[in-house]
Fold:
Amino acid sequence: MARHKRYDAVEEEKTSLDISSLIDVTFLLLIYFLVTSAIQVKETDLGMKLPAAMPSDKQPDIEPMFIKIDASGIIYAGTGNSQMVLDSDPNIRSLPMLAQQLDMYASAARSANKSPLVQLWADGGATTQRVIDVINALAVVKIESVTFTDLVD
Structure:
């Protein structure tokens, strides 16, 4: 009878992937994107005084400027017969004509030692971005008192 020799199976080395350098690269990329990203300050904190839930009995000491945004994104200033179209292209977000009107109104109010006040009416079909564009234009001119209204003449 022949003796069977037992051979121990050669242990195969377990292959492993050293990922320590990949973790370093991941953290470096994370730091790079955190440092190079910029927060848009103009839309993070505008510091506007929005109206309270309850209407005030006190009349404002200045005639407010009325701004209307219709469903197609056209922006109007004024009410009644004095209403005029300012910015009619909804693709232009800088609103140059509105900014000019707001600047004149704010300058006149401040020269009379009064705080400028704006009433804003937005149609239900108007895009939220268009309303934000108007609010950004108010922030550029530093108009802080804004009232949203549902009264339209």
